Here is the input.
Amino acid sequence: MTVGARSKQTKHDANHYGLRREAAAGAHRGAGWWVSLRRRGHRIVRLFKDSIYGSGDAAYREARAYRDAIILAIPPATNHEQAVLLRKNNRSGISGVRRVETADGDVWQATLMTNEGQKRENFSIAKLGEEAAKSMAITQRRKWLKALPVTHLAYAHHAAEVARHQFGEELVPLDDIMPEARLGDAEIEARIRAINQRFDAARPKRLRVRVKSYTKDRVSIAVSDAGSPAGKKLMHLNTRGRAGGKIIEAIKGVMKEAVATVYDQNIWLWFSSEHVNELLDPQTFDIDQGFNVLVIVPEERLRSHAEQRTEAIDYARHEEQTI
Here is the structure.
């Protein structure tokens, strides 16, 4: 997938439905991909930043996976479900059934919007009586509703295809004209929350290292995992009496301690071998300008990190039991 603008013709296809590219805007707002969907009255919005996933293409793939997870978990409402929802001004307790004053007298009126237009039929209260007219209006609307082909209210081609394959069993007429058939808000929120937690946990782990001298004879070394909330370590180095290579070696020592505190020694060894020599090259390093880098930690290094933590926990428990 090449990052770029989408045309009106493609915005609803599998590659673009629910996805929108946002360009970078200054130093504090980076580029990324927005996911924006509506499902049963719930607006679902999430931004996948290039800086978190390593590139625009990687952010796009994660955004698309998130969109797909949402549309696979939450079906769009059907036209039958929409037809039985009560409006705020409804007084009859039945959607599409209301008491109306006409030139020929008061009636109970049944209405239903279909692909062919709106169906409408009146039942005279003067001729039938209040209860009978209302009952006949309800019966007529139920008859129309059962005859109406059931479809998902998915207006984009991709969403409609997913709904048809994933939730085809829902395309049966409702047995009643009351709104209880609608998927509950609490269940929808629980499904969205579970998906958000899964994608939060799957975010690539990052390492941010900032080195800069703000005052004479003093260097700040800040390390964080760029999380939310972030795990971080801020340390300061007194450079008085040191020069050139001695300062660089001292900075390396402090960085090593800070990175090992935020992550562990294994992550420091990786960062040192991949980045430190270039960042602290004596020919190019400027202590006053410093540097601020953000890198993605490889998954294999994180697995080693997790294994080491597990071993440490197991060892500590063993020691406690021995004591």
In short: The chain has a mean pLDDT of 84. The chain is about 40% helix and 25% strand.
